[in-house]
Amino acid sequence: MNSTSLSKLYSRLTCTNAVALDADDLVAASEGELTPARREAVAHALGESAAHARLAHVLRDLAGDSDALASDVARVRRDAAHRRPQRTERRVGANHRSAAGIRWAAGMAACLVAVVGLWTLRHAEMRQAPANSPALVHAGVVRDTISNFGMDGPNASANARGDHLFRGDFAGAGG
Amino acid sequence: MANPADPVQVRLEALFRTYGAKVQALLLTYELDRHGIDPSDVEQEVRIRLWRAIERDRSGAFHASYIQRVVASTVIDALRRAEVRAAEPLPDEEEEPGRIGDSPIRPEQRARDSEQMQGLARCLAEIPERRRLPITLHLQGFALQEIADLAGIPSAEAARKLVSRGIEELKTRLRDLGYGEFDE
């Protein structure tokens, strides 16, 4: 006579039993860390529900893999956190270098602007100043009237006023 | 969910994939698929929940017990959904190795199963509670130390004695009531 497996028969008997077990209870049960207050209720629930009992077995067998996964995730995060400051340092170094370059270029540009500004100012003064202006006199650009022989056209008389020594001779007016 | 360009995400994805495969294999090993859940769906849901947990708290600790809770809650949710779908009673595992509903159970077999299950339930109910709990845990596949821990029995040896006597008593009752011979 064939004998029936009690375990299989009981599993079928309890396969549709719905029990109210939450994840915390199941994890605690699989880790052997049930509180005395919950132990009896959880034990009865596991005894009466094939599905929850099987899930408890899954969790028990999975404990090592969950440990390994937690460690691996922590290691990946550590590696990522370790790489992050290095990237930051590289970024900071690059920023320092580029800032120095910018400062040097800005200094050069400022110098260039100053030189161009000074030159422009000077040039404008030279253009606007009259020929006998103190500035020109000071700069030594007043015409040398010693060599003024009346060859400067109709405006020559105005310019020749500066040298009285020769004006009488060349004006021919008895002056 | 992982950015393929990010090596950290790629490494995490590989870890979760390996872990998910292990979860799926264990669900199949313990035949939780016979309770109306799809192990591949559960595996995928576990990975999604783990990703969400990582994204939610990038610097927080990722403890093993938390991972276990994710698996437990995912399977419990799947079982509840299966209950809502009103799963059929499980077929006899020896006669129907496939999934539920793969092949019909013979009417006489179903009748005999039903009779034996009623007899088992009746005989268990007659056993005093102190001895019944270790028996039911044993029939659900828990080891002696686990039974001791769950039932608050001082040692595995004490649990073994309770289980051994209880199973013998159960078999005797079933035989005396005409349900035939049973093994464990």
What would you say about this model in short?
The complex is a heterodimer of chains A (175) and B (184). Chain A has 175 residues and is mainly α. Chain A is built from seven helices and one strand.
Q: Can you tag this structure with a few keywords?
A:
heterodimer; A: 175 residues; mainly alpha; 7 helices; 1% strand; disordered C terminus; B: 184 residues
Descriptive account of the structure:
The complex is a heterodimer of chains A (175) and B (184). Helix content of chain A is 72%, strand content 1%. Chain A has seven helices and one strand. In chain A, helix 3 (36-48) crosses helix 4 (50-128). The termini of chain A are far apart. Mean pLDDT of chain A is 74; it is low at 168-175. Chain B is mostly helical. Chain B is built from seven helices and one strand; from the N terminus they run H-H-H-H-H-H-H-E. Chain B has helices spanning 7-29, 39-56, 64-84, 107-126, 129-139, 144-151, 156-176; one strand at residues 182-183. In chain B, helix 1 (7-29) packs antiparallel against helix 2 (39-56) and helix 5 (129-139) packs across helix 6 (144-151). The longest helix of chain B is centred in the first third of the chain and has 23 residues, at 7-29. Chain B is elongated. Mean pLDDT of chain B is 85; it is low at 95-102. Chains A and B meet through strand 1, helix 1, helix 2, helix 3 and helix 4 of A and helix 1, helix 3, helix 4, helix 5 and helix 6 of B.
- Arithmetic mean of pLDDT of chain A: 74
Q: Please tally the β strands of chain B and state the result.
A: 1
Using the CA coordinates, give the radius of gyration of chain A. 53 Å
**Helix count, DSSP H or I runs of 4 or more residues of chain B:** 7
Q: Give the oligomeric state.
A: heterodimer
Low-confidence stretches of chain B: 95-102
Largest pleated sheet of chain A: none
- Termini of chain A, distance in Å? 166 Å
Spell out the helices and strands of chain A N to C. Answer: EHHHHHHH
Protein structure class of chain B: mainly alpha
Largest interface: A-B, 62 and 66 residues
**Portion in helices of chain A:** over 70%
From the alpha-carbon coordinates, what is the Rg of chain B to the nearest angstrom? 21 Å
Through-space gap between termini of chain B = 47 Å
Q: Indicate the overall shape of chain A.
A: rod-shaped
